[in-house]
Amino acid sequence: MPGVILTSETQIAEAAAELAAREAVFAQALQTLGSLPLRRVDDGFLALRDSIVGQQVSVASARAIRTRLDTAGFALQDAVAAANDEALRACGLSRQKIRYLSALAQARLDYAALREMPNEAVIATLVELPGIGRWTAEMYLMFALGRADVFAPDDLALAEAARMLFDLPDRPRPKPFAAMAELWAPWRAVAARLLWAYYAQTKRREGVG
Length: 209
Description:
mainly alpha
């Protein structure tokens, strides 16, 4: 079963308040962060296409490539599946990402079925495709499917935010970080939003980004 689905910022705020009642440092952070964003996107091919496009490039570069893909008609799965490499390369994609996007389009995933699958089953399905690792699958679960109890312990920004917020000597490694996050169930995706927001706020204060 998919569990709780996050659909509104009101729901996010209620979950954040519950987390703050459990963790004093979360309560302190929320006083300066204010409301947390929902950050939902539509599920389906386009969400995964955009995740692949955004890998290892700047936000601005990813935005420009997505715009060129959309203008060329490559917002649709069937169009990407039928496209030749030259047409996709003209949109700014690397050879590797052309392979990833072509494989994604040709896989013709049953996106409606993913909505009903447990988190680990969704991850197992997605990571079978080239270019989609566990982190990308976790982002799809959080932001395309809106799952409330998903975390990404390999995410460096989350780990760095946890180090700062909880005054840890080092960034937590993925396995102990995942264990730490279990205390925030069933709202781990809300805890992730809080940590990302805290990380962004801290970097702005430091004049980074």
